[in-house]
Amino acid sequence: MQTWRHLTRPDSLVALVGIAIAAYVIASPFFLATYPPITDLPFHAANTSVLRNYFDSAYHFREQFLIEPLEAPYMLMYALGALFALFLPIATAMKCVAVVMLSLLPLGLAVLFRGMKKSPLLGLLGLGLVWTTLTHWGFLSFIGAVGLFAMSIGTTLMVLDRPTRGRQVALAASLLAVFFTHIYRFPFAALSVGLTVAVMFPATRRYKPVLAAALPSVLLFATFLLVRSHIFTLESGHLTFEFGRLSEIPGHVFGAFAGEVGERERGIGTQVVLAAVLAGAGLFALRRSSGSGSDVSPPRRLWERSVTLLALLLSLGFLLAFLTLPMMLKSWFFVYPREAMTALYILLAVAPDLPRSVPVRLAFVALVSVGPLRFASLVGDQWRDFERATADFRQIKELVPAAPRLLYLIYDHSDTARSTTPFIHLPAWIQAETGGWLYFHFVRWGLYPIRYDFDGGAVPPTLPHMLEWEPHRFNVTEHGPWFDTFLVRHRIDPKPVLAADPELELTANVGKWWLYRRR
User: Fold this and answer.
1) Residues 6+ apart with CB under 8 A from 350
2) Every domain of the chain and the residues it spans
3) In the structure, what pLDDT confidence band is assigned to residue 457 with cuts at 50, 70 and 90?
4) 168 pLDDT more than 70
5) Model confidence band, residue 445 (pLDDT cutoffs 50, 70, 90)
6) Cα angle 114, 211, 299; round to 5
7) Which helix (H) or strand (E) holds 286?
8) CA distance 200 to 308
9) Alpha-carbon span 190 to 73, nearest angstrom
10) How far apart are CA 54 and CA 287, in angstroms?
């Protein structure tokens, strides 16, 4: 009875409205496409399927792959996907994983605000950064790790404020989750926890409870440094401060679409930023006009100033990373652009606290939800279009035999407004759903807990670097003999490309997809 009364309180109802809006913004597009037009998602699905079906001989995964978690501990997203795939089709399981990873943005920010002794409802500010360029690329583990990063800072603040056993466990768990979600984020998280302790020390006079909670993940990271693959031996390279990158921020944050759709996307992005600024300015003005800050005790005032300084320092740190990191670190691609979104995300934490007034909270929810709701509508429209554009792929996929040795070539990338093609890896869904081999695979980069067994495994031959992006370099007599199935997206019959191999014959043509099989 007490719980029901609590849920029917006006402020709790406002929170439920916010949760419902967040759920709609994040999840609604995933109901509109069989295969979401997220560039890297097909290969994340393939990696997940390797975990899920590793011991099923029909998939032939044990013949190709080894699973070595500590050499590259990007495990959480794939393990979660494999768990979902025990009960759901792999495509549905990956949609669930994507929703979980994206949900960590507003959830992590809500925990950070809670740690700052502000309303968790402010976490709705993170909704505006759910549908950014990074999401459409498919950097879902990175996005999830950014949310977990914010969560680790929020739990650190809670431990410093009142170090209970439960809060220490929450901090330890959040840091371990960062480690297993995206190892590249863990050093940022560990250093930021240390910075949090230092900045908050005048207000808390504590550090030992945080050290105890951080110890398990730090020891695990030290173990990783000892056993990691050579591909993870990062070198600083030529780091330069490039102030001109500031003009790139809009494109790296709200640059997932091109043409007229891209203009709409950037317009909504501008609205999201302005809404966050207006919400912050309005809350600050309300605080000043009500005089609520004048009667704050000195310890509370010190706490508020310290958490604001912390958010500014963390955001500045990510901005410096954006201005100095390279585009690539060994096999890591799109390195520095990721920090633009991270810097903006952490900067949201400077927002003043919400007053208890229900009308003000409703106004806040309405203001910061309009942009994300428009983003969900825009993305939904594009995903409906992609569902129609991939009807031919779904049909021809059914004609591909299970567990093929598949070589695919994408010549035609039209029928989408995406700025980065969502067709480039689309055939990887075939391996995810039926097993077999692919001529190109993310595991070759050595960045994942799944890797090829080069010592005796049935591994596809190494083909020219970037062939998937440059199919005109394909030579069927040089690159094709190992494969038995060829799937090509082209406006016309690709027979001239394959004619030099007389064993290949056309099996099916559906729309822009051409299926050739070896006799």
Assistant:
1) 280, 308, 311, 312, 315
2) 2-31+68-385, 391-425+427-518
3) confident
4) yes
5) confident
6) 45
7) helix 259-290
8) 10
9) 16
10) 57
**Please, what is the angle between helix 298-324 and helix 335-347, to 10°?**
160
Pair of tokens at residue 300: 């509370």
Handedness of CA 160, 161, 162, 166 (dihedral sign): negative
Nearest to 140 by CA among 178, 180, 97: 97
Exposed e or buried b per residue across 295-318, where buried means at least 16 C-beta atoms within 10 angstroms of its C-beta: eeeeeeeebbebbbebbeebbebb
- Could you report the per-residue pLDDT of 233-244, keeping only the tens digit for each? 545 556 788 898
Length in residues, the chain: 519
Q: Which of 112-126, 130-144, 315-329, 394-408 has the lowest mean pLDDT?
A: 315-329
* 318 HSE (CA, 13 A, CB side): 24
**184: its two tokens:** 């590249």
What are the two backbone dihedrals, phi and then psi, of residue 126, each rounded to the nearest 5 degrees?
A: -70, -15
Q: Using alpha carbons only, give the angle 26, 32, 37 rounded to the nearest 5 degrees.
A: 80
Distance CA 470, CA 450 (A): 26
Average pLDDT for 256-275: 96
CA distances from 37 to 85, 123, 187, 354, 455 (A): 20, 27, 31, 37, 35
SS (H, E, C) 10-60: HHHHHHHHHHHHHHHHHHHHHHCCCCCCCCCHHHHHHHHHHHHCCCCHHHC
Helix and strand numbers (H, E) in the chain are: 19, 7
Is the torsion defined by CA of 9, 15, 21, 23 positive or negative?
negative
Q: How far apart are CA 367 and CA 271, in angstroms?
A: 10
Q: Which amino acid is at 459?
A: V
Q: What is the mean pLDDT of the chain?
A: 93
The per-residue pLDDT for range 75-95, each reduced to its tens digit, is 999 999 999 999 999 999 999
On whether the CB atoms of residues 373 and 18 are closer than 8 A, the answer is: no
Pairing of strands 405-410, 450-452: unpaired
Q: CA-CA distance, 191 to 198, in Å (whole number)?
A: 11
Helix, strand, coil shares, percent, the chain, to 5: 65, 5, 30
Q: Rounded to the nearest 5°, which phi and psi values hold at 65?
A: -115, 155
Residue 439 to residue 194: CA distance in whole angstroms: 44
Query: What CA–CA distance (Å, rounded) separates 114 from 412?
Result: 49
DSSP 345-386: HHHGGGPPPPPS-HHHHHHHHHHHHHHHHHHHHHHHHHHHHH
Residue 516's DSSP bridge partners are 486, 506
In sequence order, what are the beta bridge partners of 409? Answer: 488
Write out the DSSP string of 186-242.
Answer: HHHHHHHHHHHHHHHHHHH---HHHHHHHHHHHHHHHHHHHH--GGG-----S----
Angle 173-46-332 (CA atoms, 0-180°, nearest 5)?
65
